Every structure is written in structure tokens, then in C-alpha cells.
């Protein structure tokens, strides 16, 4: 029998995508910390509804910079969270480490004070932009040596240099062994082309060997299902006259698949918007439907740089926006080229939230929460792999 309690602390919880994925993977939240009142109301609403065990989660509406980890009186196995991504987002102001919204120092403080066996942090693709390369390396070094604290008069550059000297000396063992990778959510069964960088670290004294879980879905398999086997259209009962034309950029790939000159993997097809929203009534035709968070929002229109997600592809990356919600990434483009905004429920399906999970606030606020979220399924996939590794390393009795 394994003696391991998978107790976790969730930082910057937002709408709960990572937190739900962690819980689905077997982690028990000792604390869920989020400062935004609307996001916390989303948690409270689902707690009142007794959704997915959320009523057992201790949700703290608090500034993580002021949170006292000493109040958690039992061992924490994993710390997880998505430090606010606006400083590094492609849609943000690109201030990076000059931005007061950079919360990576708080993620490092949590690791330093809780000394978990592992941590899982995620952030936007923009963090890997060349212009942030030196700060990216600084983040990794801080997470490798969280006890080497930045001194009050010390600049971040000087602190980074001190960490580099520690790292290259060979005299002091890293506190955490870290791997990071940019993951495309579509490759793991999420109906959205959403790229997130994950940092996973294990305490060095555990001697853990771990790698990111392999992809489960592929674009090649979707191309085959649509344009060679036709299984995709059959499954959705779409007549030939109602199917879109093959994207000219994919003609060569389809031809190579047909001839067998393109390696064909055995993965499942990428999931599409049509896959995700199947079974939901059209909110424009049925405005009085009884599905929660499924209300039509008028005003969608297209212009250059502001186009929706095709119905038969994984959705574009849902975005929260720097000032309000940018509509282009949050619109559906039908086969006839007409478009409308996704409802909150449809966006939740694109982020693989369960259907009974309710989002509080108006459309723009709910979409902001969803645009900042980690897809539940992607979070669960990474978290389950970490959980299995920790359980395998646990002492037996």
C-alpha cells in the first residue's frame, strides 16, 4: 500500500481549469488562491452546487503576495498554478519582468516555503519569445534554487548572475530538477490550438525520472478522417453539399497521406469545434434554450486580423484580452462563412470544462476567465503523469 497523500496548493487559480485538472488526477487541494472576485464567485457558485467536489476546496480570495503558507498545517506534495501571463502574452503590453503583474517571484516563494515534492506551473507561449530569453532562464534558475533568495538591494540581473555562479560551481546540488516544454493542447484531445509552456519540477532528493506524456491526437489523423476515410463527416452526419472545401494549404499533405508517402501515425484525430459543441442547440435559433451559460451574444463581425474559428478545425486560441475581450478569437465561423460569438458554454467546452460547471458574471467577464484558463484535459494529462510518478516513488507499507 502506498503512503502518499496528494495534497496540493493551487496559486492564481482563475476560473479553475488547472485546479479541476489537478483534482481529476487525484490531487486534494489544501488551498486554492485567487484574488479576482468574479473568478472566486465562479468557485463559490460551483461549491454551492456541489459540483465535482468543489465544496471541499478551501478557496481563498486573497493576494498571493500576502498569503501565509505557515497556515497550511500538513505536508504539501505539489504546488501548481499559472502566474499571471499578461507580462508575456502576445496580446499584452510585453513588459515582461518590468511588469508589476509578473507573479513568478510568488510562485518561487511558494516552492521555497512549502518545499513540495513537485510543482507544475504553466504560462503562455509568449514567455518563450526571444526577447524574454534571459528572463526565462532566470525563472528556471530561481525554481531550481528557490532557497537562494534575491536580496533587497539586488537587481534581478545581479540575482541571476549569482544563481548562474551557483549552478555552474558543481559544488551544490540543485534543489529541484526541472523540465519545460511548449505543449499544443490540440495534441492532447483539446478542441483548440492552444499552446502553453509547462514547467514541471521534482525535488532533487527524490531521484525522479520523468518526461512529458506523449501526444494522443494529431492533425494528420484529422486530415485522414475528413478527406480520405470520410469518417469525420459520417459521424457528424454532414452531407457532401454541406462540407467545406479542403484548405489549399493541406492539399499536398492529404495527397501524400493518400499515396502513403507521408508517415501516418496511429493517434486519434484532432478534435474540432464541431466535435466540441455537438449536442448544444444553436443559441441564435433557440434563444430560450435551458442550457446554462448558453446565451447568444450579438454583434459578431469579421475584418482583417479579426476572424473566427472554422467549425471543422480545432478552435483558435481563446483570449482574454488586455482591454476587454477581443472578438476574433472568440467567434465561430460557419461553413457558409457567417459568424457569431461563441457562447460561454461553447467556450467552456473548447476549454474542456465539464458541462455542469457554471461561470459567474456577464459574457465579457466569463470569457475573460475562460481566455485565461488552462484547458482542463491538458492540465489533467500532465498532472496525472506527475501523480503516477510520485505514487511510484512513495514508500510502501
Q: How many extended strands?
A: 12
CATH topology of the largest domain: Rossmann fold
Number of separate domains = 2
Low-confidence stretches at least 5 residues in length (pLDDT < 50)?
89-99
Main pleated sheet: 7 strands, mixed
Estimated helix fraction: 25-40%
What's the quaternary structure here? Answer: single chain
Shape: globular
CATH superfamily of the largest domain: Vaccinia Virus protein VP39
Classify the beta-strand content into a percent band.
5-15%
Gyration radius, in Å: 22 Å
What's the N-to-C terminus distance?
A: 5 Å
> Order of strands across the biggest sheet?
3-2-1-4-5-7-6
Helix/strand/pairing category: alpha/beta
Number of helices: 12
What does this 3D model show about the protein?
- Helix content is 30%, strand content 14%.
- Strand 2, helix 2 and strand 3 form a beta-alpha-beta unit.
- The protein is globular.
- It is α/β, with parallel strands linked by helices.
- Helix 1 packs across helix 12 (376-393) and helix 6 packs across helix 8 (251-259).
- It has two domains: 7-215 and 374-393, Rossmann fold; 217-371, Alpha-Beta Complex (DNA Methylase, Chain A, domain 2), CATH 3.90.120.
- The strands form three sheets. A seven-stranded mixed β-sheet has the order 3-2-1-4-5-7-6, with helices on both faces. Strands 10-11-12 form a three-stranded mixed β-sheet, with no helix packed on it.
- The chain has twelve helices and twelve strands.
- Mean pLDDT is 90; it is low at 89-99.
- The longest helix has 18 residues, at 376-393.
Amino acid at each position: 500500500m502506498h503512503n502518499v497523500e496528494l495534497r496540493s496548493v493551487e496559486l492564481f487559480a482563475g476560473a479553475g481549469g488547472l485546479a479541476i485538472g489537478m483534482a481529476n488526477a487525484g490531487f486534494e487541494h489544501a488551498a486554492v488562491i485567487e484574488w479576482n472576485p468574479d473568478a472566486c464567485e465562479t468557485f463559490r457558485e460551483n461549491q454551492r452546487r456541489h459540483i465535482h467536489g468543489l465544496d471541499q476546496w478551501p478557496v481563498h480570495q486573497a493576494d498571493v503576495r500576502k498569503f501565509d503558507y505557515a497556515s497550511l498545517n500538513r505536508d504539501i506534495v505539489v504546488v501548481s498554478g499559472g502566474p499571471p501571463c499578461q507580462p508575456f502574452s502576445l496580446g499584452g503590453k510585453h513588459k515582461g519582468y518590468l511588469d508589476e503583474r509578473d507573479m513568478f517571484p510568488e510562485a518561487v516563494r511558494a516552492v521555497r516555503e512549502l518545499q513540495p515534492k513537485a510543482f507544475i506551473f504553466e504560462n503562455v507561449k509568449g514567455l518563450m519569445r526571444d526577447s524574454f530569453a534571459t528572463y526565462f532562464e532566470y525563472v528556471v534558475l530561481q525554481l531550481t534554487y528557490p532557497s537562494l533568495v534575491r536580496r533587497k538591494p539586488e537587481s534581478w540581473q545581479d540575482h541571476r548572475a549569482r544563481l548562474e555562479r551557483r549552478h555552474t560551481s558543481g559544488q551544490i546540488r540543485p534543489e529541484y530538477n526541472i523540465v519545460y516544454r511548449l505543449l499544443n493542447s490540440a495534441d492532447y484531445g483539446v478542441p483548440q490550438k492552444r499552446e502553453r509552456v509547462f514547467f514541471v519540477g521534482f525535488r532533487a532528493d527524490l531521484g525522479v525520472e520523468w518526461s512529458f506524456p506523449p501526444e494522443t491526437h494529431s492533425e494528420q489523423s484529422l486530415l485522414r478522417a475528413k478527406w480520405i476515410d470520410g469518417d469525420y463527416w459520417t459521424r457528424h452526419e454532414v452531407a457532401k453539399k454541406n462540407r467545406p472545401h479542403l484548405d489549399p494549404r493541406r492539399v499536398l499533405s492529404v495527397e501524400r497521406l493518400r499515396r502513403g508517402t507521408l508517415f501516418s501515425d496511429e493517434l486519434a484525430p484532432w478534435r474540432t469545434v464541431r466535435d466540441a459543441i455537438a449536442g448544444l442547440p444553436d443559441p441564435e435559433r433557440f434563444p430560450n434554450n435551458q442550457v446554462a451559460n448558453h446565451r447568444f451574444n450579438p454583434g459578431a463581425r469579421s475584418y482583417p486580423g479579426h476572424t473566427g474559428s472554422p467549425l471543422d478545425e480545432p478552435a483558435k486560441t481563446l483570449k482574454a484580452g488586455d482591454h476587454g475581450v477581443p472578438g476574433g478569437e472568440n467567434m465561430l465561423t460557419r461553413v457558409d462563412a457567417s459568424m457569431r460569438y461563441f457562447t460561454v458554454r461553447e467556450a467552456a467546452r473548447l476549454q474542456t470544462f465539464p458541462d455542469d460547471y457554471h461561470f459567474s458574471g456577464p459574457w465579457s467577464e466569463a470569457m475573460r476567465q475562460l481566455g485565461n484558463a488552462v484547458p482542463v484535459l491538458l492540465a489533467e494529462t500532465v498532472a496525472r503523469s506527475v501523480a503516477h510518478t510520485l505514487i511510484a516513488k512513495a514508500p510502501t507499507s
